[in-house]
Amino acid sequence: MALVKLEDFxxxxxxxxxxxxxxxxxxxxxxxxxxxxxxxxxxxxxxSGRFRYLVLDTGFxxxxxxxxxxxxxxxxxxxxxxxxATNLLNKEQAERLPAYDExxxxxxxxxxxxxxxxxxxxTTAGATAVQPTANTADRDTYTYxxxxxxYNMNERDHSTLRLYEERLIANKTRQKTGxxxxxxxxxxxxxxxxxxxxxxxxxxxxTSGTSGTxxxxxxxxxxAGEVAxxxxxxxxxxxxxxxxxxxxxxxxxxxxxxxxxAEETLRREELDVHxxxxxxxxxxxxxxxxxxx
Length: 293
Fold this sequence. Notes:
The protein is α+β, with helices and mostly antiparallel strands. It has helices at about 5-10, 15, 90-95, 110-120, 150, 155-160; strands spanning about 5, 25-30, 35-45, 50-55, 65-70, 75, 80-85. Strand 4 (about 50-55) and strand 5 form a beta hairpin.
């Protein structure tokens, strides 16, 4: 049963709960008397957001000590801006209460000391002591519902009673789950190519003349020097590299949609009205703009 400060649980508590007002700073009076015993320093709620304690700053009444006041042991008068600690009637009780330190968590033992003081408060003239409620639960099974005189809220003492319910809120957030980087790398391979080439060559064929046949006078042309010219060609290989577009790659994103189903158990508070005799009870809804605890 972890307890947290009102503002930590409801950051906008002034507008959300008190319609723009603030419970902090209200004067606190003992019982129904006109003796001021301090002011409301803060309020504490449980893990479900229900009010459990007011933090009472006793000021000079008990040397500036801060103590816890169970929400069911007080009456709030918003018009007069007062809180009446109906079960805290004298200094002796306040002095027996353990001091509240907002820097320290409140454990079961601290709450038990607080409850012991309020379970059987002393009486004053004209005031009736609240009968103590048997506390048979230990630290593992105790619940605030076991002691309604300390923790219950009613319309007479606390104005509008807030009934809570849990709702399943379906929302979604966008978050980065990864990234894809597209790059290029160079791979090498050894390629071989074969090119047939041609080379010219000169073939000189020599044959012997006709033996015994004389050349006519004047036909023999004896000369020295070049008598014939042939140009000789050959092919040489031309092997080189050229770049070509092998493949085009397009990069884009597609959105894949799916529906996620979730299931939770929701709690809701319902108002229980207990009557005696035959009273007329009108449970008409109230304007939601005027909200108070």
